[in-house]
C-alpha cells in the first residue's frame, strides 16, 4: 500500500527538462510537456505540482519509445535511469519493489500525447510473486485482497506481456464463480483466489512457454517493453487512423506506486467528470465501484454506482474529490476526466485529462466557460469543430412515432442509430461492407472490438456506464452509444439478446437513442435535428434542452461569422437548393452546374443538338434550349439576389446525355430482327459510337465542347445575360459570374471569352441594360495550375475544381479506385485519409498555392475560390484560408461546417483536431 505522504514540493527549475534524459520524476514535468511525457505523465506531473494527492512515480519519455520502435532496442541509458528513479521511489516509500515482507508494488501504464482509451497496455500490481503475496497479505491484514491482486497481475501480465489469450483467464474465472455459486468476483474468497492463481500460472506456462516471472524487476522491465510494443498493435494503429493521430509520436510509460481500491468496502475506484460529457450540464457525473481496481470500471465487467452515491458511502473522500474536481476544472479551464482510487478512506488521484465529450456537450461547455469568465469567445471557438457541428445536424428519433420499447440503458453518446443486431465485431465489419447498417451489441466492449465499433451505426452494451470502454470510445468517434442496459441479456455465443421473454436474433432491426438511453425494436422514424431547424429559421433559442443547444450553437456561429475572412458559398443548381443554402448562411453560389439543367424532359433536346447534321439543325436545337436555360437562371438569380452566382458552362462529355450503349444496341438489334427499326435509334447508336471514348473524363468535355460545337457556349452565355438583364430591369441585383471549365491553356479561354463578350454586348444593346458579368475559369488541370499566371491574363476569377484536380494529379479515377484499393492504402498507412475527402496538401495543395501566387502576380484583384467538395471539409477549409483564397463553396448542408471552420482558421487554429 502506498504511504500517505504529501508529494514533493516542486521548484521552478524542476518544471522544465534539464538536458537529454529518458526518465522524469512526477515532480519534474508539467502539463505542457505532453510531447515528451505523454498526456498521462504530463498531467500526473501537473497534479503533483498542484499539491494534489498523487502516488509517487516516474515517467519514461516518448523519446525512449521512439528509439525502441526505430531500432528494436531500448536506449542504452534507459535501464540505468530507470534504476536510479526506482531507487529514489523505494527510498521515499520506505520499501523495496517486491520485497517479501512489505512489498512496494507499481503499475506500468501507457500514456501517449493524445488520449487513446483502451488501445494500449497497462499492467497493475507489478512486484507480486509467490513470496511477496504472503507479505502483502500480512501487511494489509487482508488475505483475500492480496490473492485478488496477485491473480489480477498474472491475468494482465499473461495477456498483455506474454501474449496469452485473455479468454483463457476469463473462462477460468467464470468457472471458479460457477463452482462457488456466485456471479461476481468479489464473492470469491481467499481460498478460491489461491486456486485461481495456480490455474492462471499453469495457463501462462502452457500457452506462453515459460513460467510467470517471480523476479519483480523482470516483471517491470518486460511490462515497460510491452507498453512500447502496444503502440503498434493493430487496434492502436486502427484507432490512430480513425482519429488521425500521427503514427510517429510513440507513447510514454508511467511507473506509479500502487494504491489499492480492492481492500474492502472502505476502498474503491472511480472515474469522474467535472461536467456531463454527454450533455455538458454541470453536476456530479461519473462512476464508482467499491472494492475494485481501476480496470474494473472502464472494462464494464461490473456495473458501477453513480458517483453521487459516494457521498453516502464515504463523505470525507467525496467532499475532497469535489474540491479537487473544481480546482482542476478551473486550472485546466475545461471539462476534466479524472481517475481516482480510495484506499481505506484515503483519496488518491491517478489521472486527469481534458475529457472527451459529445458534440452537443462541446458547444454547451464552450459557452458555459465563456459565461464563467474562464475563457474568451476566441478560445470557445477553438473548443468546437466542424465535425462536431456536422454530428449535431444528423436526424433524431421522432417523439410522436409509435415505438416498441425493449429497455433502457445509460445515454452514453447521443444520436439516433438504426441497424441490424450483430453480436461480434467480425460480423459488424462484414455486414457493413456489404452495405448493411448494423448495431453492435455486446455485454461490454474491449479494445479488440474497435473495428466493429467503427463499422457500426451505434453500440449497445448490457454492462458498463458513462466511463466504460464503449462509452469513452464512442464519444470520441461521435458514435451513438447506449451502455449498461441491464434488462438486456446478451448471449454472444448464441448470437441473440433476450429481454422480458422476447428474443432478438442476429439480423433483427433495433433502434438506439444515445440521448435518452432507450432501446427500441424495429426501425424508428427520424426527424430533422433542432440544429438544422435553427439554420433553416424554424427554431429559436428557448428554455428546453434542445433550445439550449441551439443557443450555444448560435453564439459560437455568430462569433465565427464575425471573425472569419473566408466567405462561404454553395454548390447549387436550382432555386430550391439556392434558397436552402441562403438560409444556411451561404454568401452566394460558387458552382451552378448547368448540365443538371439538361436532364429529364430536356434530354431529347440535347439529343437533337448532338444528332444535328447541319448548322440549321444545330441552331434550331440551341434555340429550343435557350428559353429553358434563361428561365432556370431567372429563378436562380431571384433566389440569390444581391449575391454572386457562379455559373459553370457545360462540362461533362456528351455521351452522358445519350442512352447507354449496351441498352441502345440491344434495342436496335431487337428492332432490326423484327424489321421495325426506329430511324432515330439508329442515328443515336451511330452518335454513341462516334462519341465513345476510352477515358471520357479526359476527352471531349468542358471548354473543348464550347470550341468544337459552334454556338453551344454562346447559347448558355446569352441565357445568363438575358436572365440577368430581366432581373435587373425588375429592380433586382443579379451578380452573375460565368465560369469556363477544364481550361488547360490561356488560348482556350481567350477564344471563349471573346465570343462571350460579344454575346453580352449584344444583350446589353437589345435590353438597354448595363451588365457587369465577370468571366473566369476552373483550375482543375495540373497544366492550368502551372500556367496560372498566363491564364489570369484572360480570367477575372479562378475557382479550383479540386475533385478533378485531385484525379489528374494522382492519376486515378475516383469512381474506380475508392472501391478497388483505397481501403488497402488506408490500412497500410499510405493515406492517412482519402485525398478526395481532405485535400492532399503536399501534392494538390502545392499546385493550389503556386496557382494562387502566379494568378495574383498577374492580376492582383483576381478573385479566388474553390468549388470541389473539399470546400466543406473542415481540415481543407483551414488549408484554403492559409493559401489565401477568398471563398469556399460546398453543398448546402455543409455550409454551417465551412462557416465554423473558416472562423476557427481566422482565429488562429492550426487545424480541425477534435481529439
Automatic annotation (TrEMBL):
Its cofactor is Mg(2+). SUPFAM superfamilies: Glutathione synthetase ATP-binding domain-like, Phosphoenolpyruvate/pyruvate domain, Phosphohistidine domain. Coiled coil: none annotated. Residues 1-20 are annotated as: Disordered. The keyword Nucleotide-binding applies. It is an enzyme of class 2 (transferase). It catalyses: pyruvate + phosphate + ATP = phosphoenolpyruvate + AMP + diphosphate + H(+). The keyword Transferase applies. NCBIfam families: PRK05878.1, pyru_phos_dikin. This is Pyruvate, phosphate dikinase.
